[in-house]
Every structure is written in structure tokens, then in C-alpha cells.
Design brief:
It is a single chain. By secondary structure, this protein is an alpha/beta fold. Among the domains are: about 35 residues; about 200 residues, Glycoside hydrolase family 3 C-terminal domain (Rossmann fold), CATH 3.40.50; about 110 residues, Immunoglobulins (Immunoglobulin-like, Sandwich), CATH 2.60.40.10. Strands 11-16-15-14-12-13 form a 6-stranded mixed β-sheet, with helices on both faces. Strands 4-3-2-1-10 form a 5-stranded parallel β-sheet. Strands 18-26-25-20-21 form a 5-stranded mixed β-sheet, with no helix packed on it. Helix 21 links the parallel strand 14 and strand 15. The protein is globular and about 75 Å long. It starts with 7 loop residues before the first helix and ends with a strand. Bound molecules: 1-deoxynojirimycin. 1-deoxynojirimycin (NOJ) binds next to loops.
């Protein structure tokens, strides 16, 4: 055995005295001392994460046995982290076994997927991105951290910062949409929100930027699929959100399931070493994705589990999530001299450092009273409602049908999502409770009071017809003055492993919509969705349409706020909505081609059966008022690569209600040494305006933001003309030109 036992009592004294105020050198020395005491088995244990939850679905005897197994591993010191363990009681029980009964008394690190809230479930991340308000979402992540840490989670596997340009991919729901500039703002905000100022405080969780890298570019939108991406797009788009997260101090990164240009991300030395640790300067902990180390066998990159484990640890993956390969394979590799124990030690150090930063050596336990106190407070609910209503995007509002009056006559609420609590929670809402959700029906009742004339009919199931459903819905519509249609996707139609080849409204609901519209009653369509959807028929036939996403625990109240005008909608699409699935991939920041689409010219880049333009462009969203843009300026008109441009535009509220406009700044580099997108978002700013009021909105753009990566992935800011566009979305805007000298 390499490490003696004699020094243990001394070491424990040291650990007990370790405090977060301690000088970094002292903390490092103590971690070194601890590593020096560890057996190889204990080291590989620290590198191992395993499922630590207790399923409610098994019988009490099996549960008892499962708990005994978890406790046994903790006592033996052969586990560093449990995933899925939650609740003060369960996590404290496990922690006690590690801290009080294992040889070295190293605390366990509890990791969980707290993606958009713990008990207070916020809208899905894609919806949060539709607020275009990173500061607000930082607060939402703070709430998640307060509740999550109080329930025993030290480490959340969030933020998910993949950029996705393919709405078929189920995990688009977890992203901030298709744009990397917007994505980077949210990545940084979420890291700050989860981690707070001090990871050791009882309201902070270690964040995990995932999935490194380019997971959002899965071919065909099929989850886990191959990624083949150009170096330019990799650097400019997919790596940029990770740069932002690292700059914001993210404590951990998760490697992705996918391969990148032939090498699995789980063992990609160029990505993990050269880019992440080298260029970005990341010095935190890297964890694999679930089982992804062994999956390198199926990828065709490793012959067996031993080779896979060796490849992953050498490439820089510190912790093995749930494949078991590190613990079962690496001891032999070290003994055989194939793996330097220093590589193992470096990984162990990063894991112990994370535990140290989280204050676990001092305060390993959770206060059960705190857990009870902080969950789903009125304040947390209020924030969830505010985020949800700010995430709603008004796509269409013919003749000002919305907002409805609070005495609208008889309302028919029709559709399978009218009273669908679970579906409001969306993907990855493991700890939210459907019984705590305000559905749309409940939200309407809350707003209209008990005497509201409100009829309800399901009409169809989400993906199947309901016998007599359409007849019943049509009858109700005919008897009513206005119809609210609650249609779209259930929560399990997006998320991991839930890609769709067709992003239409499911056929049974489409038939319901058409039958209800045929009654001629005014219809407000409320779409529930975990992705951009193809809504051509609805856009052509329904007078008013709201995108409500999966809005979380306060979804119904938030939608009612918008429908009845207590809140003027201000959400904007964070991803393009195509006309049909066949247009996918479609994203606003594409390149121009040598033959850009031209009306009447067949031999240009387009389809013969459809326009090339989307149904609703990136950045689009209406308000109950209207805005006019005028007097766009740029100053200076010339700047050096380290200078900056100040863009400004006068926005006037030309309607009759107060409202908030989101001024978006895009740029185009029309001639460069690599072709550049037709437009690229480079800034945004919101402005609140009373009816008739005008304000000049200023957006600062550092010239560095206008650069790009060349063929050798070198970052350049080239001299030449830059065209700026200031407007309400990616397909409009006033142009002003400037020069980079
Ligand atoms: C697999 C997912 O890809 C990842 O995002 C998640 O954090 C882990 N499973 C753990 O649940």
C-alpha cells in the first residue's frame, strides 16, 4: 500500500480546522496531505459518481437494500459523489456515513439536475431565453440554488449552454435558443445565479456548464447523434457560450455524449485540454455525461471499458458519471504502469477542491428546518410568475383581439393542455409537483373570479383523438363568445431522448383547431411547446396566437396576466419558427451563398414549393402597443479593433398602451476573408415607453465583438465596412454603416 494510516488523526485535525476563509495555500496543502493519505481505491472512488437516489417505485425491502448499498460504499470511501440523492434527510444520512464512518472522512458531493428550478419550477430554459432578460434569469437561478442547496444538492448539472439550430432536437428546450451571443449572456447569468458570491454559503450550488461541446449540432436533430462541424462554427458558435461560462467562474463542465469530427467529446484532448483548460483557462472539475465513457466503445473509439477509461482520464475528464469504468478499470492500468498516478491525483485534487470551495469539509450537513422554510415561498412564486409572463411571445393579434376584457361574455377553454398541470412543468422538473401548478384553467379562474362564464372541453388528447371530443368542443365554441385554444406539446414531447421528426402541432389537435375555427368564433390560440414549432395553418387562420412554452408552476396565472392585459407581452423568440419542418435547419445567422434566394429566379438558393423565409424570425414578438424606429446613428463611424461603436436609435410608442420594446442590434461584415452571416446579433436593450413617448436607446458594441475565427481558428477583427441594423427583430432594422480601421 502506498499510503500509511498513521497520519490520519493529524490529517483529520487539519480538516476540521479547514475553513473557507483559509488562505488558498493552506487549503491546497491540506488537500495535498489528504491525497497523500489515500489508497488508489479511495482515489478512484473520489473520481466516481453513482446514482444515489432512492426510488419510490420499489418495495420497502428493496429500498432498504438500496440504501444499505449506498451507505456501504460511502463508509468504504469508494464513492466521491452521488447523483440523484435529494432531501435533507436522505443526503444527511449518506453524508454521515462518509464523514463519520469512512477512513478519511471525506464528504460526499451531491449532484442533481436542477435545470429550471427545484420546487419552484420556472419556465423551461428556452422560454426563459424568450425574456431576453439575463438579469431576471440570474434571479431565477438564485431561487433554484436557495431551494436546491437546502434540499442537499451541492452541484447542479446546469446551465445547459449548448447552442441549437435544429428544433427537431428534443433538448432545444434546455437551451437558450439558436444564437450564441444571446446564449453567452444567459450562460454567464445562470452561472452567477447558481453559484452566488460564495459557494460555501447554504444558498449556492456549484454550476456545471454542459455539454462540452457542440451537442446542439447533432445531425438531423436526433439526440446523441454525430456532430460534424466546421472549425469556424465550432469556435464562433459552440465554444462561445463555454467561454462566457468560464469567464463567469463556472466551477465545473460536463463533457458531451457526441463525437466532434470523429473524436468523442468524452476523450477529446484538443477540446478538453487545448481549448477548455488551455485557451479558456478553466481550472475546475470536468465530469463525463452519464455512461459516456463506456459509450466510446459503441462510438468505435475504444475497444473496451479499460481503454475508454484510460482515454477519458488522459483527455481530462476528472469524474466518471455512472459508467463505473474508472473504478473498475483504472487501478489495473496504474499498476501496469499505463497510467501515471499523477494523472489520477490531479483529478482527485480538482474534486476535493470543489468540495472545499463548497465548504463541505466544514459544513457537510443540511439543516432540515431550512429545507422546510425556503421551498415555494410566496416570493419565489411571484418571481416564477414574472419570468413566465415575460417569456410569453405574442405572435399574432389581428384587429387587437387581445387583450380580452375581464367581462368577455362566455369563454370556451378548449384543448388537451387547458388543465394539464404536469405539462406546464416541462422537461427536467424532477422536483416540481403537479399539484402545485397553476394550470391555464386555474389561472383564468383566478383572474375572472368564481362567477366567470367559463366552459371547458378537452377536444382531443395531445397525440390521439378523443372519442366525441371534437363534437363536444365545437358545441361549446358555438355557445360561447370567445374561444381560448390550449394546444401544442406535452412535457414529454421535448427534452432528452425526445426528438421529433415533425415539429407540427400533432394531427388530432390540428383537426380540433380546424373544427373550432370553422365555427367562426374569435379564437386565441395558446401554444404550449418545448421547441419552435411549425404553425403555418394556425398563422393563416387563427386571429390571435401566444407562445406560452412550458411555463412552470405559475404558468396559468402568467398566461391570464397576458390574455387580460394585466401584463403587456414583451417576450421575443430566441429561435426561428419555420413554416414547415422541411425548412430545418433554418437560422437567422446563415451565410448568403453566391446565389441568395431571389423572387422569380429559380436558379437561386431556395425551394420550389415554399419561400425560404421563416414563418416567424428570430427575435420576433408583438406587444399590445406599437413602436416606431427612427434616427439611427453610429458613432464614431471609424474605430480601431480595440475601440467601440455606440449605436443609437429613437424608439416611439405609437400605440395607446404603455409597453416595453426590445431594441435589437445586428451587424453584417459584407466583405471579409471568411464569409460572414447575413446578420449577427451583437447587442440588445429594453426600453419602457408610455403611449406617445420617445426615447433614444444607446447600445455599445466593442469592435472585438465583430471579429471571427479564420481557417486556422485564429480570432481576427478585420478592417473594413461593418453594417449595423437596429430594429425589432432579425429580419428588420434601420441600417447605419461604420468602418473598422
Ligand atoms: C444525461 C444528460 O445528458 C445530462 O444533461 C444530465 O445532467 C445527466 N444525464 C445526469 O442526469
Amino acid at each position: 500500500m502506498v499510503h500509511g494510516r498513521l497520519a490520519v488523526p493529524l490529517l483529520l485535525l487539519g480538516l476540521a480546522a479547514m475553513s473557507r476563509a483559509e488562505a488558498p495555500q493552506a487549503a491546497a496543502a491540506r488537500i495535498d496531505a489528504l491525497i497523500a493519505q489515500m489508497t488508489l481505491e479511495e482515489k478512484l472512488g473520489q473520481l466516481t459518481q453513482q446514482w444515489g437516489g432512492l426510488s419510490q417505485d420499489i418495495n420497502p425491502g428493496a429500498r432498504q437494500q438500496a440504501l444499505a448499498d449506498l451507505l456501504g460504499m460511502a463508509r468504504a470511501g469508494v464513492i466521491g459523489s452521488y447523483l440523484g440523492a435529494t432531501g435533507a434527510e436522505h443526503t444527511n444520512t449518506l453524508q454521515r456515513a462518509a464523514v463519520e464512518e469512512s477512513r478519511l472522512k471525506i464528504p460526499l458531493l451531491f449532484g442533481n439536475d436542477i435545470i429550471h428550478g427545484y420546487r419552484t419550477v420556472f419556465p423551461i430554459p428556452l422560454a426563459e431565453a424568450a425574456t431576453w432578460n439575463p438579469t431576471l434569469i440570474e434571479q431565477a437561478c438564485r431561487v433554484a440554488a436557495v431551494e436546491g442547496r437546502a434540499a442537499g444538492t451541492h452541484w447542479t448539472f446546469a446551465p445547459m449552454i449548448d447552442v441549437c439550430r435544429d428544433p427537431r432536437w428534443g433538448r432545444v428546450a434546455e437551451t437558450a435558443g439558436e444564437d450564441h451571443f444571446l446564449g453567452a449572456q444567459f450562460a454567464a447569468a445562470r452561472v452567477r445565479g447558481f453559484q452566488g458570491d460564495n459557494l460555501a454559503s447554504p444558498n449556492a450550488m456549484l454550476a456545471c456548464g454542459k455539454h462540452f461541446v457542440a451537442y446542439g449540432a447533432a445531425e438531423g436533430g436526433r439526440d446523441y447523434n454525430t456532430v460534424d462541424v466546421s472549425p469556424q462554427t465550432l469556435h464562433e458558435v459552440h465554444l462561445s457560450t463555454f467561454r462566457a461560462a468560464v469567464d463567469a467562474g463556472v466551477g465545473s463542465i460536463m463533457s458531451a455524449f457526441n463525437e466532434i469530427n470523429g473524436i468523442p467529446a468524452t476523450a477529446h484532448p484538443h477540446m478538453l485540454q487545448t481549448m477548455l483548460r488551455g485557451q479558456m483557462g478553466f481550472n475546475g472539475l470536468v465530469v463525463s455525461d452519464w455512461g459516456s465513457i463506456n459509450e466510446m466503445i459503441a462510438h468505435g473509439y475504444a475497444a473496451d471499458s479499460g481503454q475508454a477509461a484510460l482515454q477519458a482520464i488522459r483527455a481530462g475528464v476528472d469524474m466518471d458519471m455512472c459508467s463505473g469504468a474508472y473504478r473498475s478499470q483504472l487501478a489495473e492500468r496504474v499498476t501496469r504502469g499505463e497510467l501515471d498516478v499523477k494523472v489520477v491525483d490531479a483529478a482527485v485534487r480538482r474534486i476535493l477542491e470543489a468540495k472545499q470551495r463548497l465548504g463541505l469539509f466544514d459544513n457537510p450537513y443540511i439543516d432540515p428546518a431550512l429545507e422546510k422554510r425556503v421551498m415555494l415561498t410566496a416570493e419565489h412564486r411571484a418571481l416564477a410568475r414574472d419570468v413566465a409572463r415575460r417569456s410569453i411571445v405574442l405572435l399574432k393579434n389581428e384587429n387587437g383581439l387581445l387583450p380580452l376584457k375581464k367581462q368577455p361574455g362566455k369563454i370556451a377553454l378548449i384543448g388537451p393542455l387547458a388543465d394539464a398541470a404536469k405539462d406546464m412543468l416541462g422537461t427536467w422538473s424532477l422536483y416540481g409537483k403537479p399539484e402545485e401548478v397553476v394550470t391555464l384553467l386555474a389561472g383564468l379562474r383566478n383572474t375572472l373570479g368564481p362567477n366567470a362564464k367559463l366552459g371547458v372541453s378537452k377536444g382531443s388528447e395531445v397525440q390521439a383523438a378523443l372519442a366525441g371530443g371534437i363534437d363536444d368542443a365545437v358545441k361549446l365554441a358555438r355557445e360561447s363568445d370567445i374561444v381560448i385554444l390550449a394546444v401544442g406539446e406535452s412535457e414529454d414531447m421535448s427534452g432528452e431522448g425526445h426528438s421529433r421528426a415533425n415539429i407540427d402541432i400533432p394531427q388530432p389537435q390540428q383537426e380540433l383547431i380546424e373544427a373550432v375555427c370553422a365555427t367562426g368564433k374569435p379564437v386565441v390560440l395558446v401554444l404550449f411547446n418545448g421547441r419552435p414549432m411549425a404553425l403555418q395553418w394556425a398563422a393563416d387562420h387563427v386571429p390571435a396566437m401566444l407562445v406560452a412554452w412550458q411555463g412552470g408552476v405559475e404558468a396559468g396565472n402568467a398566461i391570464a396576466d397576458v390574455i387580460f392585459g394585466d401584463f403587456n407581452p414583451s417576450g421575443r423568440l430566441p429561435a426561428t419558427f419555420p413554416r414547415v419542418t422541411g425548412q430545418v435547419p433554418i437560422h437567422y445567422n446563415h451565410r448568403n451563398t453566391g446565389r441568395p434566394a431571389r423572387e422569380g429566379d429559380r436558379y437561386t438558393s431556395k425551394y420550389i414549393d415554399l419561400p425560404t423565409t421563416p414563418l416567424y424570425p428570430f427575435g420576433f414578438g408583438l406587444s399590445y402597443t406599437s413602436f416606431r424606429y427612427a434616427e439611427a446613428t453610429v458613432s464614431p463611424t471609424e474605430a480601431t479593433a480595440d475601440g467601440k461603436f455606440s449605436l443609437s436609435v429613437v424608439v416611439t410608442n405609437t400605440g395607446t398602451r404603455a409597453g416595453e420594446e426590445l431594441v435589437q442590434a445586428y451587424y453584417r461584415d459584407p466583405v471579409a476573408s471568411m464569409t460572414r452571416p447575413v446578420r449577427q446579433l451583437c447587442g440588445f436593450e429594453r426600453v419602457s415607453l408610455a403611449p406617445g413617448e420617445s426615447k433614444r436607446v444607446v447600445i455599445e458594441i466593442p469592435a472585438q465583438r465583430l471579429g471571427f475565427y479564420d481557417w486556422d481558428a485564429k480570432f481576427l477583427v478585420e478592417p473594413g465596412v461593418i453594417q449595423f441594423f437596429l430594429g425589432p427583430h432579425s429580419a428588420e432594422g434601420l441600417q447605419v454603416d461604420a468602418q473598422i480601421k
